[in-house]
Amino acid sequence: MSIVKDDHNATLRQWHEELQEQRGARASLRRSVTVNDVCLSEGFRSLLMQTHTLWKIEGQEWRFTALALTAAVAAHIKSIDERQKFAAQLNNVMSELRFSRLCAVKTPDELLRQLRRAVKLLNGTVNLISLAEDIFHWCQENNELLNHHRRQQRPTEFIRIRWALAGNIGIRSGRIAREAAQILIDSGIDAKKAVEYVEKIANCFGKIKADKKAKDPLTNADTEQLVHISPAEFEAVKALAHRLAEEKRPATEEEAALLRHDRMAVDIAMFGRMLANKPDFNVEAACQVAHAFGVSETIVEDDFFTAVDDLRAASDDAGAGHLGETGFGSALFYTYICIDKDLLVKNLNGNEELANKTLRAFTEAALKVSPTGKQNSFASRAYASWALAEKGTDQPRSLAAAFYEPINGTDQLNVAVKRITALRENMNAVYAQETAFKDFNVMNQQGSMKDMLDFICA
Predict the structure, then answer these.
(1) Which of 41, 198, 258, 346 is the most buried (most CB within 10 A)?
(2) What is the torsional sign of CA 60, 61, 64, 67?
(3) Over 50: is that where the pLDDT of 342 sits?
């Protein structure tokens, strides 16, 4: 969900345009090296007065900081280009080292320095609206981190992950041809005719639904299966739809051959793709993820809950308005992830830099993000307490055997770490292996996530 709304975006564009003529105000912003400097500048005060509804929200003081950062960085932007998201623009010019520095910033002042360098790399031509949205998301997440509070969000919604994978996340849907048909309808073509025009596009991705009684004609542009396609493939679908709308004709067989091997989405490269009717475009997954399991004996508990009907009189019914129960368990979980980096690079058409960005973003998400189901009821917000990364050319192996016998007692984490470490050393000795590794342990404050990410991507 966008934080910076359309009316704020319009104000921001207008303010930036006026700033180009106000050299003194622009210079005061460009000289600012900290957020405090920005707050005292003439240029920021001008923007502040025009955007009360964006930043003046009780309990969300971080918005003020975000607006100050936006103003300071915007002062270095010469022209606005909204054809690509800010992160996608960065992907074209920023090295992996610079990107890792951007993702590692911890304070608003550090972020200001890194974003200024990013704007310079883009020669001052930036999507200001996308940049502002990203700054506001960063400040929101940073505020939540400082206050130990997290919203429920998907891994790909975290700003660092969005930056890393911008323009490279695929689309999974059974409505791809429907999107094409909608473009035709928006150009004035009848809905039934539009569905006929995109029939071959739908056939490219799977078996079309055939519902003669459907109330919505667009239903017959949908495929029975969900299809995972890359952004490049989706853009090709939309471009073809615009051409068909202009020429008022159906797609040909040749035009509808929209699947491609190049410019593959990172999630398809990681987790694969299977197309029964187009096996040539299947992608073998480079990533394998084991189900997590508890290292101790787990007892399933029952959460019995009631709800009171506030409008029900006591004389009507003395009982609760609702009764229910939910089963839950609490455990220290072990999980295992195996990635074939060579296959990942191959799936990404040899783009090793993108592969490393993918590994960095994926690993951070795996360490930080908990399953989102039932979070409002249980607030299961856990980061990894211990992690081990290994890399090498030997056949991969899990260390799940360390927990054939459940762990008991009050020191489960330390016991679990000792078991895994001992099993790893025993495996290496018996199989004459010596894999490079990096680990961290939160309880002992040993190692760091950053060192692990650098090790994985090296």
Answers:
(1) 198
(2) negative
(3) yes
